[in-house]
Amino acid sequence: MPSDERIPAVLCAAGHDPSSGAGIGADAEAIRAVGAHPLSVVTCLTAQDSCGLRRLWPQPAAEVDEQCRLLLADARVAAIKIGLLGSAAMVRTLLGVIQDHPDLPVVLDPVLATGTGQSLADAALCNQMRQRLFPAVTLLTPNVPEAQTLSASVAPDNCAERLLRMGCLWVLITGTHAPDEFVTNRLYGRNGTSASWDWPRLPGEYHGSGCTLASAIAGRLALGLTVPEAVADAQAYTWETLSRARRTGRCQLTPNRLFALDRGMNQ
Questions:
Q1: Chain centre distance of CA 247
Q2: CA dist 70 → 26, 41, 98 (Å)
Q3: Cα–Cα distance between 248 and 120 in angstroms, integer?
Q4: Which of 50, 28, 17, 91 lies closest to 245 in space, CA to CA?
Q5: 57-101 confidence digits (pLDDT tens)
Q6: 155 C-beta neighbours (distance < 10 Å), count
Q7: CA-CA to 75 of 20 to 30 Å: which in 35, 128, 157, 194?
């Protein structure tokens, strides 16, 4: 018999990728995989596939605001995950939602470009994130190029220091873009805490690895883990999704975020 208790949910505000490699579809899979429930609000529509993005259509901010507030009033939302914003106006909208629910942890994946290098954020959007959104964020998850752009610094330690000064409680800088044998991810806390992890670099190019990691963290925060615990667990999960990635299109591979289910169906 179904339980009357609502399961923890993660409110996801992100772009829609019709290929389901990244964006809101990726968020939903990663959150569902950990046992939380994804709530999906689309900030922008895109025309893209595994090879890249062709066009982006930001959604009306008022409609996004209404959707978020309706879901927050209905579900047992235990975390918020923000991905591709699409416009500076969306920062103001989501900030209002966050400020009305200050008890919820917020994970922001500051998507500035596609995996193939196409820009997704202009200077106005970056400035709005720095000035308004970062102070409301629990965890920021940029890759190294994103951290450098947002902080106007180069070394990961210096990037993190500047981003923390902008207001984030935690910053996780991922090393997926470095040409090294291992991918080094570094976590920094405003309280002086730091940690790093080295993961064997996998061959190939992947579409949606950043979305997968940020959403996996948000799902674990919704289940009650601390930020360091959620970050550690989510990295291991994300590496597994990449190691089991599948070719769903002509170009980048798609992470297998439901690999446990997929494995069970094939036994």
A1: 22
A2: 22, 11, 14
A3: 23
A4: 50
A5: 999 999 999 999 999 999 999 999 999 999 999 999 999 999 999
A6: 12
A7: 128
Distances (CA, A) of 51 to 18, 82, 106, 237: 12, 23, 30, 24
In degrees and rounded to multiples of 5, residue 249 shows phi and psi of -145, -165
φ, ψ for residue 205 (rounded to 5)?
-115, 140
d(C-alpha 91, C-alpha 82), whole Å: 10
Instruction: Judge whether 216 and 237 are in contact, CB under 8 Å.
Output: yes
- Structural tokens at position 50: 């595994």
Residue-level pLDDT at 113:
83
Q: Please tell me the distance from the alpha carbon of residue 234 to that of residue 229, in angstroms, as a whole number.
A: 8
Q: Which residue has the higher pLDDT, 6 or 134?
A: 134
**DSSP one-letter string for 111-175:** --B-TT--B---HHHHHHIIIIIGGG-SEE--BHHHHHHHHT--SHHHHHHHHHHTT-SEEEEB-
* Beta strands, E only, the chain: 9-16, 37-49, 52-58, 77-82, 106-108, 139-140, 170-173, 182-189, 194-200
| DSSP three-state, residue 104 | coil
| Cα distance between residue 57 and residue 44, in whole Å | 5
Dihedral angle, C-alpha 149, 152, 154, 155, nearest 10 °: -110
Chain Cα centroid distance, residue 155: 22
pLDDT tens-digit map of 203-237 = 999 999 999 999 999 999 999 999 999 999 999 99
Q: Is residue 198 scored above 90 in pLDDT? A: yes
